[in-house]
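Let's practice the habit of predicting before peeking. Look at the sequence and jot down your guess about where helices and strands might fall. Then scroll down.
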Amino acid sequence: MSKDVCKNLKSFSMPAYLRDANSPPAEAVFRFCANLEEVHSALPFDLDNLENCCQLRNLRFHLPMNHISDNSLRRMAISANSLKSLEEFAVCTADDSFSSSKFVAKVLLSFPNLISVGLVDSSLPLKFIHKTKSSVPLHLKLRRCFWGLSHDSYLRVVNTRKLSTYRKGFSKIIKLAVVSCPYIEELVINVFHEECLQQLCLLQHLTFLSINFNYCDHDYMSVWFAVLKKIGPQLKHLSVEASTNIPVNAICDNCVNLESLRIRGKAVVGETASTSSNLPHLRRLLLMCMDNRSLMFLLSNCPLLTEMFLDCAVCLDDTLLSNILKHNPLSELKLAGIHACKLSKLGFRMLLESAVKLEKVSFRSVKFDASDVIHKLNPKIVNYPVFNKLKDVEFFRRKLHPCRF
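Done guessing? Here is the structure:
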């Protein structure tokens, strides 16, 4: 690349195959790229080579943390004043939450103005800092955080004393994290003890919450509902994952400003719930498992819905769809993924005729192939035969991609 090209570069990526290619070293490129704002690299390099990149905001490595040397990180910390614009420093390759704590702690201490360290646990690093560096909690500017052991880390310590100790101290870990990160707007949390939930009420700026209860041993529902009453109105995007039933009426009652909702578990409606939901602003919905009542409850009163994914919709037949469309014609729907439903050709045609703005669909019925119906009725609709291909553009999947969060 010429010097003039380098001057104009805003984003730069170094894929792994360049390791064996006859390409110039990183320092030769970065020396002339003073206007870089984003760097992605699958190759290790000395981080102080970025000293001239004063506009750099986003730095992401696609390689294990142990490939970035302590010496390199130390030299970068020395020149941190030249990277005052840096907001995101992330390692996108999954690492063990315990072994990565020291590395993430060093990043946080070196760059206290970061808003994200990616989809890696930052609660254990904060505990490490508090224990070894400072008895007074830090006040960081993090806006996006992941708290709790990753699934891979959990599998490494399951049925061990280490997990038991971690679970007992989890609430204190989260309490410290909340105090240290008061400006969080987007949080992904794997819950290991229900007592930590009350701490979420202190996050006054929180608008995006992805919460996973699959690692929680005790009954958490009553505490969770109490927390929802307090933080629900401020949430715009909510993802809930659990191995138990998830009462969606409680979500609707308390989270009236939701724009996006993902339920990874069985969505149910409580016996005492009203017959209709209260999500007037909902635009995106994903359900992994549902029954007639919960599907009718959620779809009947979401007039602004533009994106819908129904993963296992065996309850959806022509009769149920007809009842839903009487209440909500889905006239704003642009993207629909429906898997394993019981709609007939007539029912699917009814959906296409009602959802007049549909642009992309992935449809799998146990009764027929939808391709011909789509082609005859509206050939402009893009049909995705593979459900997961369309699901790649689903809101939460894009938002929580390791290279973006």
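How did you do? The two ends are 30 Å apart (CA to CA).
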